[in-house]
Design goal:
Blueprint lengths: L9 E2 L3 E7 L5 E10 L6 E8 L6 E7 L13 H9 L3 E5 L11 H17 L6 E11 L1 H11 L2 H8 L9 E4 L11 H4 L8 H6 L7 E6 L7 H13 L4 E6 L14 H23 L1
Parallel strand pairs: 5-6, 5-7, 7-8, 8-9, 9-10
Antiparallel strand pairs: 1-3, 2-3, 3-4, 4-6
């Protein structure tokens, strides 16, 4: 069963950095927004957006990977820069890490929901169009993004303290889609299927338009588990696209020397998917 949510947070500070020039000569802002929830450990929303945008822009709220135990919002910095240069804001949300700031993986899910809810309710303050917000994540963060998208309205509201604004799209980078997999079962055993994406789908939840990028040789989240997840979703009428990267293992999306061509291919596809999703919402 789901545990009682913690109280809502207070915004406490904001730091802004210039992190580079885009193709049009404009700067990209990297803005760190710490938030505090009644004495709980501070987490950070890292916002990548063009400095001189004259209109509100669409955004995707994403969660980093790291087995719910490690990682930082900076994991998604290169993707954030790429999207911001092209007019899409990326919000990389930090969350409490198991074994460091909490012993309960449910706190990771709660933080993810509160972060998404904060962006929806404070969108204009960070240059975001409140009607064009997507969600996503990488590896363990992919499961957090799926929780935002798939949990029941009542479960979401119990945690966030406000009604959910449904995300317009979901973007997954080798996301964990089945917490009953032996690799993850112990982490989630206290919660059963409460936060299990595939079980939520089987229980009648629906995905927004979804794009998943996955390595063909992923041994942490095997490709066949993602294909099964996509099949369940498409059988009930949801739109899911899987982009398979041949010969690639888990974490293939992390910037490394020699991956430039592959990452450019990934980023082009991600930008195209998000742009189409946002354009469809505005039509």
């Amino acid at each position: 069963m789901m545990k009682n949510p913690y109280p809502l947070y207070l915004l406490v500070a904001c730091c802004v950095f210039l992190i580079g020039s885009n193709l049009f000569g404009e700067e990209v802002l990297r803005e760190n927004i710490p938030y505090l929830r009644n004495g709980l450990p501070i987490q950070t929303l890292t916002v990548f957006r063009p400095e001189n945008a004259e209109t509100l822009l669409p955004a995707v709220v994403m969660y980093h990977g790291g087995s719910w135990k490690k990682g930082t919002p900076g994991q998604l910095a290169q993707l954030g820069n790429y999207l911001a240069e092209r007019g899409i804001v990326l919000v990389s949300a930090g969350y409490r890490l198991v074994g460091k700031q909490t012993e309960d993986v449910g706190d990771c899910v709660k933080d993810a929901i509160v972060a998404y809810d904060w962006v929806c309710r404070n969108a204009e303050s960070i240059g975001v169009d409140p009607d064009r917000i997507a969600v996503g994540g990488a590896s363990a963060g992919g499961q957090l993004g799926l929780s935002v998208a798939l949990l029941s309205d009542s479960a979401f509201e119990e945690i966030a303290g406000s009604e959910r604004q449904a995300p317009l799209a979901y973007l997954g980078l080798n996301p964990v889609v089945d917490t009953n997999d032996p690799r993850f079962l112990k982490t989630f055993e206290e919660y059963g299927d409460d936060f299990n994406p595939v079980a939520l789908l089987e229980g009648g939840a629906h995905l927004p338009p979804t794009f998943i990028a996955h390595g063909q040789k992923d041994a942490v989240v095997p490709l066949n588990t993602v294909e099964r997840f996509a099949e369940i979703a498409t059988d009930q009428g949801d739109e899911v696209e899987i982009m398979i990267f041949e010969g690639q293992s888990h974490g293939f999306f992390n910037p490394r020397k020699g991956r430039e061509k592959m990452l450019n291919e990934l980023y082009v596809a991600v930008f195209g998917f998000l742009s189409e999703s946002f354009d469809s919402a505005g039509s």
